[in-house]
Amino acid sequence: MKITYFGHSCFQIEMGGTQLIVDPFISPNELAKDIDVASLKADYILVSHAHQDHIVDVETIAKNNGATIVGPYEVASYYGNKGLNYHPMNHGGKWNFDFGTVKLVNAVHSSSFPDGSYGGNSVGFVVWNEEECFYYAGDTALTWDMKLIPMTCPKLKCAILPIGDNFTMGYEDAVIASDFVDCDTIVGCHFDTFGYIKIDQNDAKNAFSKQGKQLTLPEIGKTFEI
Ligand code: NI
Ligand code: MN
Question: Angle of helix 58-65 relative to helix 73-80, nearest 10 degrees?
Answer without folding.
Answer: 60
